[in-house]
Queue: 3 jobs
Job 1
Amino acid sequence: MAFISSGVACSHVPALGVAADTGISGDDYYGPIFDGFEFSRQWMEKEKPDLVFLVYNDHCTAFDARVIPTFALGCAAHYEPADEGWGPRPVPIVKGHQALSAHIAQSLILDSFDITIMNEMEVDHGLTVPLTMLFGQPDAWPCPVIPLAVNVVQYPAPLGSRCYALGKAVRKAIESFDEDLKVCVFGTGGMSHQLQHQRAGLVNADWDDRFMNLLVNEPEKGCQIEHIEYLREAGSEGIELVMWYVMRGALNEKVEEIRRFYHVPASNTAVGHLILENR
């Protein structure tokens, strides 16, 4: 049977993709960030998941103001990198796993999660940057990826508690799939940041640290953080952090924290990263 071995939380700052693609990931500005992921890339080489279930948010590429699904599950055979205004990233096409995607879709819907099924979808930096940070720059991604896009762009976003419950339903779906697959679940986005108006450039390192502590050790409490606290303490884009709770819900109640990395600044935002293993 399929099983979930580990979870990864990772910011998806678009500038990190640019740095990797243009060969400046070792300079004075970006070097400390990429160095901070070196342990994680080595860990991933040893972990060797058969599949990554990746939770991210679209940045008005696959979706726009006409259609904004709260949860959209990728069920395609592959996913092309999106053109976000300056051409698609020069990264491999993301291969999907249609059989498992269909199984997850059925399981989630019968579990009362009204998801949107995407049989065709382009993916942007929200998905490809975390893959770059954990897998480097291979000619092909080493395993299939099933994307789950979550709306955290236009209010109302889902609650952290709903994302946590969804993660539990995703785990139930994966573990009922009759194929021997080792799965790693990614929760992406965040950490504290705001991109506009008077608080542009906001970073709240103390709150970010508290958020990670709750996520790892007290997820039932942490998932109850309300929208207004994310907005007040983590900035208008800090709401992306609810997606980490889909990943956390897919793991055991007790996990082992293998890696924690936090860095400021990265394009006026905070970069946060965790590796959690089921025990």
Job 2
Amino acid sequence: MSYLTLKDINKIYPNGYHAVHNFNLEIEKGEFIVFVGPSGCGKSTTLRMIAGLEEISNGEFLINGKRANEMGPREREVAMVFQSYALYPQMTVFDNIAFGLTLQGVDEEVIEEKVKNTARILGLTDYLDRYPRALSGGQRQRVAIGRAIIRKVGVFLMDEPLSNLDAKQRVTMRSEIAQIHRETGATTIYVTHDQTEAMTLADRIVVMKDGYVQQIGTPYELYFKPENVFVAGFIGEPPMNFVRGTVTKGTLTFGTNTLDLSKKLGDRTGQYEGKELVFGFRPESVELGKKEESYQIRADVELTEMLGDNTNVYITTGDDKAILKVDPHDTPEVDAGIDFSIPYSNVYLFDGETEKTIK
């Protein structure tokens, strides 16, 4: 039996807005689950229903096999870390972390021991006497996390906890959250719109769009085996390139290039004649020059971005555009023509109508 079970969960607001549709997920004890998707996709609403802060309109939420729909937040034994730090400015770091235990009337000696252990895990030992105003954004977020994990509850819920940090702090805090999870072994559900956070932290990722689950899987599965155009385009930076076109005599046109789909579809090519398909490939999956067992593409270079470890090359061919990620030592000249190859094994094909992956 799974530790947490969400069965056909729906959220419908009084004005009729259907925020979450038939959400299904089973979570094992100790898993790190990430809900990811664009703003307004329903991920935070789902998290709040798990926390007991939003009522579940339809469906069933189980904790250890026991129905929890009617339980209050305290009964569910969850701790939540919000986007804002929500620290008490008049309290020291020690008192902020200890606040929940103090309310419960826990013995002072026990509180002191637990706070010190929590501070050690979070690297806050030297800051226990400071006030929040004397801390950096990353340190404040660690205090907020400390206030949650000190309670030793069954589930930690994190709603975009790093969104207020700058880029460098986000990278540091990502690794710290991963380390905290390894040390505590806590079941964690984490919400973000940042696919990099999702890929680096999660055991499994739930990709959402418009209130619907698009795919659930490991970071590897979502990256290499996307189930539709949305997931393929959402996961990866730069995003996957897509070319839409109608199959004509077994071929698809990519700008000025004609692609023989039988190289990918084999004997099934004929069944897609006259239908619209989406041809997809990741920027880093290409090779400059002409290679065997690959689609050969001729294009013009519109712009290059040298990023140190790689260069993003923006290309055009006819009316189609794409981004290539290449070795910086092979950066082509702007306005030059280039040849590149896409190995057949690195190509994704999607149904143009349903946008689902053609296996």
Job 3
Amino acid sequence: MGLRSREEYIQSLRDGREIYYRGQKVDDVTTHEVLKAAVSHAADLYSLAQDEKYRDMLVYNDPVYGEISKFYRIPRSSNDLMERFELIYETTRLGRGMFNIIKAIGSDAIFAIMMVAKQLDAVMGTEYYDHIM
């Protein structure tokens, strides 16, 4: 499948989901007067990942899933955490100081949920961790 392009990401937001902003229904977040700025900022990461200059910084070849965003590479060592810090720092710098919440905080949340799911599975005999993966 490969990594999404900027255009594929933007198009994926036009999937019929129901969105409201300040109590008003939004027909298309990609063209909304206020929200389109956030969409564009998030889409910048997809553009950077396609750029050979930044590809090594943003793309990881996962043995199971193939090419994925390095934001979703599960940190397993202190070196991995330092690489993640540098990734977040550099993408924030490239975003002209705007922190990219879509992947940085989103993946942090996924990693936290994975840890809790693993503990819950051990106690309850569930399979939440596998579902997250």
